[in-house]
Amino acid sequence: MLVISPYAKRGFVDHTYTDHVSILKFIEANWGLSPLTSYSEDNLPNATPNVYVPDDRPAIGNMMTLFNFSRPNFGTIKLKAGSEPTGGAAASIGLRQR
Fold first, then answer.
1. Is residue 94 situated within a structural domain?
2. Does 2 map to a domain?
3. Residues near 84 by Cβ (< 8 Å), separated by ≥ 6?
4. Cα within 13 Å of Cα(4), Cβ side
5. What are the tens digits of pLDDT across the range 32-89?
6. Could you tell me if 17 and 66 are in contact, meaning their C-beta atoms sit under 8 angstroms apart?
7. What is the pTM of this model?
8. CA distance 89 to 83
9. Residue 65 CB-density burial (10 A; 0-12 exposed, 13-18 middle, 19+ buried)
10. N or C: which end of the chain has fewer CB within 10 A?
11. 11 has pLDDT over 60
12. Torsion, Cα of 35, 39, 40, 43 (10° steps)
């Protein structure tokens, strides 16, 4: 899972198992909500690396370890301005039309 946010930890790789239910678990954990659906209530504690690993399936994380809400990074990435590279999509389209 890729997390793109000004609150995401930069350069951080988390090995906690996540899937689509992790998004629901994140919403529940971040705003202190009870389970939104029966799918988000997996009856397993939130995954903590090397602490809890179920035998039958991996615990589903809630993505809270991916964020640092106290130090957001609202910086921007400056891209180099330049012309389209040679041999790009426009060149190949032009060749097919001939």
1. no
2. yes
3. 90
4. 2
5. 888 777 666 565 555 555 555 556 555 678 899 999 999 888 887 777 777 666 665 5
6. no
7. 0.58
8. 13
9. middle
10. C
11. yes
12. 90
**Dihedrals phi, psi of 8, to nearest 5 degrees:** -70, 145
**Residue 6 counted as domain residue:** yes
Total domains in the chain come to 1
Q: Which two tokens stand for residue 41?
A: 């209530």
* Three-state secondary structure readout of the chain: CCCCCCCECCCCCCCCCCCHHHHHHHHHHHHCCCCCCCCCCCCCCCCCCCCCCCCCCCCCCCCHHHECCCCCCCCCCCCCCCCCCCCCHHHHHHHHHC
Cβ(18)–Cβ(1) below 8 Å: yes
Tokens for 36?
A: 């939104």
Is residue 14 within 8 A of residue 47, CB to CB? The reply is: no
Q: Which domain holds residue 30?
A: 1-76
**Distances from the Cα of 48 to the Cα of 44, 51, 61, 82, angstroms:** 11, 6, 8, 45
